[in-house]
Amino acid sequence: MKVTCAWCQHEGRPAMLGERAPLDNPAETHGICRRHTLDLLARMPSRSFPGVRLLLVVGARDTALYEHLQRELAGVIGVKVMLDRRRGDRREEEQTVAEEHGGLDRRIRQGEVSALGYTIIRFGKD
Q1: What are the tens digits of pLDDT across the range 64-77?
Q2: pTM score over 0.70
Q3: Tell me, what DSSP letter sits at residue 45?
Q4: Based on the number of CB atoms within 10 Å of its own CB, is 82 exposed (0-12), middle (13-18) or buried (19 or more)?
Q5: Where are the domains of the chain?
Q6: Of 5, 62, 81, 88, which cross-links 33 as Cys (Cβ 3.0–4.6 Å)?
Q7: How far apart are CA 13 and CA 116, in angstroms?
Q8: Whether the predicted pLDDT of 40 surpasses 90
Q9: Going by DSSP bridges, is the β-strand pair 54-58/79-83 parallel, antiparallel, or unpaired?
């Protein structure tokens, strides 16, 4: 079966994603491409942080930046500042697991790294 992105197809863009079993079946089935998956996820609110539109994640060792952002953004609705809770050895374990699963990243949303040293994760589009 040929797999196409229904959203790309609707937009008139190249939509072929590949093939899946049974390979001898010429029928078409639909999936969703990476671009449209990321767009869809960006529109969804966070289940982990209800009401948060902007999450700023600061490295665990940069407590001065964390405290500064906490003070400056304390009254801003929809913004949350948090320290990165991941531990170094845990990331190494995840890397081994990720390699076993074809290098897939388990994070649903990828953040934007700020020049000031924190990562910005947006929930929902305006």
Answers
A1: 999 999 999 998 99
A2: no
A3: P
A4: middle
A5: 2-41, 46-122
A6: 5
A7: 37
A8: no
A9: parallel
